[in-house]
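Researcher: First entry.
Model:
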Amino acid sequence: MVLSLGLWVIRDARARGSKQPYTWALVSVFTPVGLPYYLYKRYRNAGLKKRETTTRLDRVLATWASASFGAFLLAAILTPPGPFSQIRVMLIVFLPGMYLLVYRRKYRMLQQSIQI
């Protein structure tokens, strides 16, 4: 989770013209408010430009990072402690869902249906 999330933040911040993509990655991975703050800045385009293109590797990293982060949160709350329960939750629940939402870009369709 840490590796995929850090790599995604580095690649995303670099593609958006940030001068400190490694700092964003470290803050996003190792502080509890870093990732929400980065996503907020990214959403508001405050200091970060719009991204021109998204490569296949970027979508794979975003899919894996979001699936592992969601599985970590859900497994921490609902399953007994242990790495195997977290892996099962990620592979069974979150990875197929994040594949559809992130990799196949269905989040745009979901976003449009919520705004209507």
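Researcher: Second entry.
Model:
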Amino acid sequence: MQLRIGFALVFALVLTSCTTSAGGYSSSGLAPIPGSITYGGQPRTKLTKSPAGSSFPHTFTDQWGREVEEIYVIRPDRSLLIAQRHYRPVFSLDDD
């Protein structure tokens, strides 16, 4: 169920970014944390083959051992915006 809601949110985000004017993002996104792609500044390599407005996930473990998933959106100037951040539980009741 949570996966469906997550996909719906990502789809809504991508759809919204397609309908905004070029370069017209209303926020600066979330602040990067250690492990984020944009922690310490934007990456030196530009994402030239991906279209502006597209999104992609990045999963990493933070300094406290939690699994973090961030969703990035590519801006028209090819920089990255952290649009969403989700902390996954350390343990789950579904584990066998």
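Model: Note on the second entry: The radius of gyration is 15 Å.
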